[in-house]
Amino acid sequence: MINWDAHICLPQHPLADFSPVDQLRAAGVNYLSLNVGADMNPLSQVMSVIAGYRATIAANPERYVLASTVDDIIQAAADGKLAIGFDLEGSLPLLEQPDMAALYRELGVRQILLAYNRNNDAADGCHDEARGLTPLGYRMVEAINDAGILMDCAHSGRLCSLDVMAASSKPVIFSHANAYALTPHGRNVTDEQILACAATGGVVCVSGLSWFLGSDKPCAADVARHAAYIAELAGVEHVGIGLDICFQQKELDDTPPGGFDPSYWWPASAGYSADSPPTFTPPDVWRTLGAELRKVGMSVGEVEMVLGRNMMRVAQQTWRHA
Question: What secondary structure letter does DSSP report for 46?
């Protein structure tokens, strides 16, 4: 059995401490997707983070493997190691060059979404005006498919996400998003989006962030509730886990340079408040998540699908073999 966490954040800093990654490994995670940047991070910061994270992984071969294939993940689990891939939240770090997708793939990026909350020249964010996927965006989707990278629609506008899912030749995922029907937040996904994702053969990965779960103290039962809703609507083969735990390290300043404005990326009009930050499920939630999924009616085999097998399937269908 492989436990797969589709989205985790460390500080966007090359010297980020990997201790939180070790906590997830100790809790039973076999593969995690580690964020290396978003639309608000300039290319210089993204590349510095990728270089720093790669150096940490390379310096600890007894603990970590930078995974290229699903077989790498299976072998790492057998060896008692944690397999890691990177994800990119937004197309701005691609510099409007679709060919950048293949370069990021070589650097370890295994999934990419096109817009982080706000619109850019390729796609719409979920907290901005609805326009739909742009001509550049269509070229980006094709390039991401061709590079063998998972096409992600988290943080995307609803109309735009439907365009992406219609355009993609490979399964599409929402790496960290919950059911809007249960928690009506703009970052969550509607039944229409969930069903469209399933139609691609994709997976909606449940986030453990309080705002999106509708719980001030999020726990495994909250995650299981959203997973059960998605499974009932679209089928259990289309549910995964992407807890979106954001680990802060106060000694590291990872503020994007160049006049970064948090209120733009997380607008008060969408329900965000600097005075009331979100809370996250703890890493140990992985120890109890299987039992909570059983409580909502899933069989042992279905639990294994949600915790990892579904994401293994879409990765196997998408990732280009090295």
Answer: H
